[in-house]
Amino acid sequence: MTTLKDIAEAVGVSISTVSRVINSDVTKHVSEETRSKIWRAVQELGYEPNESARKLVMKKNSATKQPSMQIGFISSWTLYSAEQDPFFNTIFAGMRKMLEDNGYTFAYVLTFKELRNEVTLHKMLNEHRVDGVILFGDVNEEDDIVRLIQKHIPAVVGVMSDSPDIQNINFDHIAAAETAVNHLIGQGHREIGYIGGHGCDGELESDERYIGYKLSMQKAGLEIRKEWLVNTKWVVDRSYSWMLEMLERSQGRQLPTAIFGASDRLALPAMRAAIERGFRVPQDIAFIGIDNIELSQYTSPPLSTIHVPKFELGMTAIKTLIDYMQSDFRPTFQLLMPYELIVRQSSDYKRNE
Predict the structure, then answer these.
(1) What SS3 class is residue 75?
(2) 8 A C-beta contact, residue 321 and residue 102
(3) What whole-number distance in Å separates Cα of residue 327 and Cα of residue 321?
(4) What is the per-residue pLDDT across 296-346, written as a single tens digit (0 to 9) for each?
């Protein structure tokens, strides 16, 4: 069994220094470099605190400490890109509203990329006292970090997460995408293009919204043409430029009569590109997206979309987390929020069969 002495010898520091770092004792300064070395040794040597001592401390803490009224937020998205996204912002606003209503605050907002830094990770786990954590986005590639979080903080809820081991608040991306494409098919479209982004492995084919598009096309017996597909990696400018390029090189070639954008933010710039090149929407090319961001109803023409209850999704995630923090009963489940097709002028045109 690994001891504090083993860790101290491996790092080249005193046992008391190791103890201070592991127990988050900040009465004496320990450099970030030394902290990092100690936590690396803890992981490599497999150190586990004495179980009876740990239980005694937990019992003492539970008797003397009140809830911190703080939670953590960890995202698989870079926070810069998330802040630019009205979809994310509306979910986050819902979270903040529910936190405020219940007297909670965010102790920190971090990304998994930041937590790959050992100092940041262990500072988050050992120097921030939170009652629960929200994990936002795909987390399967971060299994080690997620397990470590669950070990320190039992109340964990995912939002649009792909982990089967945590409670998850989401909506059915595949079915929502199928609904969007089925609408286009119902309007008489047979040549339907797709503008989307990558899934958790960086490939278009693994994204759930692409999977929904593919399923709908296959069920209808329609051809999926590679030249009508693009992986923008969720970059808005790439949607606009790809659409322009496809239209410009289409001389003598067949064009899609409809485009499904995996988000409104991708559908809107593609629609603008088509209009700039003199195409009529929806008579020549129809467009539909997903998310129903506020801007989509004010474009010209207004964009058809799939409404996702973003604000409510954020509120539900926090309410679920608060319920878990206040109870020892934490079943693993996935709660799917409802979605709704909203038909606007960009696709409201019946083509001749």
Answers:
(1) strand
(2) no
(3) 10
(4) 999 999 999 999 999 999 999 999 999 988 887 777 788 999 999 999 999
C-alpha–C-alpha distance, residues 72 and 68, integer Å: 11
Residues 277-306: pLDDT tens digits?
Answer: 999 999 999 999 999 999 999 999 999 999
Q: What is the bridge-based pairing of β-strands 340-342 and 305-307?
A: antiparallel
b/e sequence 18-32, b meaning 16+ C-beta within 10 Å: bebbbeeeeeeeeee
Residue with tokens 């485009």: 259
CB 211 within 8 A of CB 174: yes
Q: In this structure, are residues 183 and 348 in contact, taking their beta carbons and an 8 Å threshold?
A: no
pLDDT at 229 > cutoff 90: yes
Rg (CA), the chain: 25
Tokens at 196, concatenated? 């989307």
**Which residue carries 């990304």 as its tokens?**
111
Contact yes or no for 349/284 (Cβ under 8 A) = no
Q: What angle do CA 265, 266, 267 make, to 5 degrees?
A: 95
Q: Which amino acid is at 285?
A: I
pLDDT per position as a tens digit, 162-188: 777 888 999 999 999 999 999 999 999
Rounded Cα distance, 3 and 7, in Å? 7
pLDDT digits 0-9 by tens, 187-212: 999 999 999 998 777 789 989 999 99
Distance of CA 320 to the CA centre of its chain: 17
Residue listed under structure tokens 């709704």: 340
Q: How far apart are CA 340 and CA 293, in angstroms?
A: 13
